[in-house]
């Protein structure tokens, strides 16, 4: 996450920002349901994202009880920059490895991800 020059951004934060960016105008309740976690857990993450300028919260005009979240330009930059970096790495790997090697690498990485306990 240092590419976006934002300290303390975790993979969870990144996933939340990306969800908000893709959906636009979502509530904490919708995010909690999508990630299958409590609203309290999401609320803590959202506070971090707002305080770091990655997400903004605005009160709904139609229902003042609802607060919608959207990604800021800084949050969008983080997501887009990360996607560009991943594409560059994937393109370089594709240039180095043949099809069979790429399939093997993908299978091995999936196995690690499935069994990784963080």
Give a brief rundown of this model.
Helix content is 64%, strand content 8%.
Please explain how this structure is put together.
- This protein is mainly α and 118 residues long.
- 64% of the residues lie in helices and 8% in strands.
- The chain contains five helices and two strands, in the order αααββαα.
- It has a two-stranded antiparallel sheet.
- Helix 1 crosses helix 3, helix 1 crosses helix 4 and helix 2 packs across helix 3.
- The longest helix is centred in the last third of the chain and has 24 residues.
- It is elongated.
Main attributes of the structure:
single chain, mainly alpha, elongated
Helices and strands in order, then pairings?
Blueprint: H1 11-23, H2 28-35, H3 39-51, E1 55-59, E2 67-71, H4 73-96, H5 99-115
Antiparallel strand pairs: 1-2
Helix pairs in contact: 1-3, 1-4, 2-3
The proportion of residues forming helix, as a percent range, comes to 55-70%
Radius of gyration: 17 Å
Structural class: mainly alpha
Number of strands: 2
What's the rounded overall pLDDT mean? 89
Task: Order the strands across the largest sheet as they lie in space.
Answer: 1-2
**Biggest sheet features:** 2 strands, antiparallel
Distance between the termini: 17 Å
